[in-house]
Amino acid sequence: MSILSLAGWISVFFLSFGAFGALYRIVRGPALLDRAIALDVILIVFSSGLTVWMALNDSTYFIVLVVVASLIGFISSATLARFTVEGAQANQAEPEPQQGPTGGEV
């Protein structure tokens, strides 16, 4: 077993550990944002796994798939960040009504 092969299997172990963690977050995530980030992590793990497989097998069969998955991940993360920021700004624009000492509106 060569050093590259050993490093590849160690990488696959850690990638699978990360994938299981992300799957747990998808199932148990308290918020929709947590689930969306976990899906992005799954896409990154998929791309990294294909890259490790290509390095171990000395091939470039799936390089286009890795590039497309990376572009999809970047676009989805940027879109998610944009809508998260816009939603936070929209929530700050509507102030809550103030209540007086008796509980009624001021």
TrEMBL record:
Topology term for the membrane: Multi-pass membrane protein
Superkingdom of origin organism: Bacteria
GO molecular function, one term: sodium:proton antiporter activity
Family stated for the protein in its record: Belongs to the CPA3 antiporters (TC 2.A.63) subunit F family.
Protein name (database record): Sodium:proton antiporter
PANTHER family (UniProt xref): NA(+)/H(+) ANTIPORTER SUBUNIT F1 (PTHR34702), NA(+)_H(+) ANTIPORTER SUBUNIT F (PTHR34702:SF1)
Pfam family, one: MrpF_PhaF
Cellular component annotations (GO), alphabetically ordered: plasma membrane
Protein keywords: Cell membrane, Membrane, Transmembrane, Transmembrane helix, Transport
Positions in coiled-coil regions: none
The keyword Secreted appears for this protein: no
Localization per record: Cell membrane
Chief site of localization: membrane
Species this protein is from: Enteractinococcus helveticum
Transmembrane segments: 6-24, 36-56, 62-81
